[in-house]
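Lab notebook: predicted structure, single chain.

Context: the supervisor wants predicted structures on file for every construct in the current expression panel, including those that have not yet been purified. This is the next one on the list. No modifications to the sequence; it matches the entry in the shared construct table.
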Amino acid sequence: MAVPEVNKEFLGELEAMGFPVARATRALHFSGNDSLAAAVSWIIDHENDPDIDQMPSITVDIGIESPKPFQISEEMKKKAQELRNRARRRQEEEEKKREREREKNRIRAGKELLEAKRIDEENERKRMLAYWESEKEEQKRAREKLLKKLMEDKAERRSKLGLPPENPASVKTSLPVVLEKNSLFTKLDTKAEPLRECLRFLKKSHKNDDARVKRAFQTLLIYIRNVAKHPDEEKFRKIRFSNPAFQERVGSLTGGIEFLELCGFERTEDGEFLFLPQEKVDMAVLNSAGSVLNSAMTNPFFGVFSS
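Prediction complete. Output recorded below exactly as produced.
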């Protein structure tokens, strides 16, 4: 198999018009090799052929020489230009299609990354909440153990003094009175300890950046004070996640968002805001939060001795 011989002059004219050698050779060969116009018409009719730019491999020895120079008409030039324009538009459309596909892939990858980050944050929050729940249970057991020890010591002292044991019924009735006297302290302590532990965790997680931790504490205190002073104003109970200042000062620090959630803030369904519903504003919690934050900022040993 060999490349067919075609009219060299026609071939040169087609190349000058911008057609590849293989396409021009194929057009001359299959159009009869006797007319430049016929070759151009063949190219127009077969431009979508998958093998149009493949060199034909049929042995043909035509050996035709043009008896006289062939003049390229304006119409043929227009057709050639139209073919080139059409090919260029097709390439541009294909490139746009590829670019749209690349953009879709970038958007998909971004969404997957955000989802993975959200899942990581959610898992971290669940872990911290579980830790605080276990701490509360431990504190409850410690208080119960202390109360039991106090009752046992009291019974032992009564025995040494020769007094009869207390009537169990009187013990049961007096116990609520004792708890009632300390109910305010117990309530405040129960609310403050998870907040305090959250700030310890934040400080420990960023122990090499004291300035950033202090700025986070100051910003959290501003949020809490604003809600406490203006509980009826929604703008103080709503924080946008994408706010650069919030992200830099609080949102990007481990424990910052969790502290606000302990104060009653909740994520909106669209995940765009932290929002504290007015009916869930608890002044006791806000006061505890403010007290814990003040202690964290003024006490140089805050969090130093925590495990």
